[in-house]
Amino acid sequence: MDQSLPSTLEGCHAELVTLRRIHKQELERRQDMEDELRRSQQLLQLVMDTLPEAIFWKDRNFKYLGCNQKFAENAGFRAPVEVIGEDDYDLPWKKEETDWFRMCDRRVMESNTAELGIVEPKVYGDGQQRWLETNKAPLHDADGNVIGILGTYQDITSRREAEIKLQELNQKLQRQAVELNSALEELQRSQLQLIQGEKMSALGNLVAGVAHEINNPVSFLSGNLQPIQEYVDNLLAAIDLYQQALPEPHEALSGEIEELDLDFIREDLPKLLPSMREGIRRVREISVSLRTFSRADTGSATPFNVHEGLDSTLLILRHRIKANETRPPIQIVKHYGDLPEIECLPGRLNQVFMNLLANGIDALDEASQGRSFQTIQDNPNQLTIRTEMGQEPDHICIHISDNGPGIAKADQQKVFEQYFTKKGVGKGTGLGLTISHQIIVQDHQESLTVRSQANQGAEFTITLPVRIKH
Ligand SMILES: Nc1ncnc2c1ncn2[C@@H]1O[C@H](COP(=O)(O)OP(=O)(O)O)[C@@H](O)[C@H]1O
Ligand SMILES: [Mg+2]
Fold it and tell me: Which of 155, 176, 209 is the last residue before a domain boundary?
């Protein structure tokens, strides 16, 4: 027994020593583990603090569980530990910003889906307004349940400010481009008017000059016709008397009289004079028409007889309406209604008539290509001019149509566009209808429209007010 006690004690002691050693080893191991853990935590914090992004994470109730140094400083704290347990509403961000953060957090956690690249404003602890690009992702436990949210963001204020500046600059530029564009259009419009106006006034001057020059010789002719008539009558009467007094003339004389065919002259000469008179009357008429056509506009509206304008324009275009080597003459069909004189810019209106009629002739010429003279004669080229009072009170309508090839549906929208032409180089400018449209719509505040079906010709309708609106 005595012997067994010490041996038992000894055994216990040995056990104790072993236990102590194990315990010590265990302590050392734990210490090592703790050191290791601390080191790795420090490393993690170091990594997080070194990243250019701010990092934070919150629990399901939106309370901060942790963050990196950058985030802590942005929120106005010295160290990340101070942020733990805080709520966004206690932090320096504006209330409406916080509402927005909260809404995003909730959405990410409820939908269990990350949201990346959210651009949002935030007021920092130092009171500065910044722009952030934020990423938010749900945090999960081992079973995959959402237990919170992890967020990172980068300060993109300078980029954002540059973007905003760029946007503003862009908008300003766009505005300027629009202004520039409309100024350019305006310039083109007035340039067009100027060029065409210049051309028309040159043509008008020329025509007026010719009309004036014709007047003088025509006056001589018509002035001399009356005395000629009298002289002829007198001479014939004198010859009659001679013949009565000398019924049997000398042989040489009677031979000469026979040679001259005096009987025919006596019959024909009185007939020549009225035809000369008619010729002179026609030249006079042409001269009047030329003067009507060449009326220069003073800029203010003047009374105008539309039918005279149309007729004088047709006269100017006569050389193109006449027959030529490829086709018979174009038939001109007129249905003139009972119209009052209208108040307008006559020179400009004549310019429109000229453009529309010339286009009609061009279309008919084109249609005549490759068709025989006879085929065209059987189905003649026609230009029809119809005038009537308009549907609206105190308005008139002028319809100018042809039975040419017509205008394809797709082109009907385009014919009034500047430079739209289907004619060959040197033939078409694509300006005639643009200018006509301007003259009717802008100068006279009414409409110029087109109607056409393929192979059934085209009809242009001008509507004009009887009295121009001032
Ligand atoms: N009466 C018409 N019949 C067929 N096409 C026409 C007629 N009038 C105009 N067009 C079409 O509209 C285009 C534009 O006419 P316009 O502006 O006068 O320019 P341009 O006569 O110089 O071509 C013409 O090229 C033609 O294709
Ligand atoms: Mg034309």
Answer: 155
